[in-house]
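Propose amino acids for all 122 sites.
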């Protein structure tokens, strides 16, 4: 069984808890969530994170800004965006910036997110 943690960053606490619950059923990794980019960077320093899942809009920083910082500090860590934005141009820009995947956020997309995480970590 794989080991490690998927870290989900979203300022919406209720939705983050739902994501944690659903992903913990669908993937073979522990799932944790934090609310801010700063909290994510702090948690990444603790190690054992195998994939970072980001919302596009975060308090204090944006998902793209956090992607750039994470890519610089942890260049081998896969990053998946899970966001309510439905913009193909933004998705393309995030992939070009280093994101492994860009999944549109809604309650019916947990399977797609789980697949994206598995593919990113593989």
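Proposal:
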């Amino acid at each position: 069984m794989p080991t490690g943690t998927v870290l989900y960053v979203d300022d919406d606490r209720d939705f983050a808890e739902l994501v944690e619950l659903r992903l913990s059923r669908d993937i073979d990794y522990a799932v944790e969530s934090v609310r801010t980019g700063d909290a994510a960077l702090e948690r990444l320093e603790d190690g054992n994170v195998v994939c970072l899942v980001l919302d596009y809009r975060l308090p204090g920083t944006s998902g793209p800004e956090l992607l750039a910082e994470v890519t610089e500090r942890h260049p081998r860590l896969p990053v998946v965006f899970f966001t309510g934005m439905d913009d193909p141009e933004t998705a393309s820009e995030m992939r070009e910036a280093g994101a492994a995947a860009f999944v549109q956020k809604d309650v019916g997309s947990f399977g797609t997110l789980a697949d994206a995480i598995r593919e990113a970590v593989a």
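The helical segments are 13-26, 37-45, 63-73, 88-96, 110-121. The domain at 5-121 is CATH 3.40.50.2300 (Rossmann fold).
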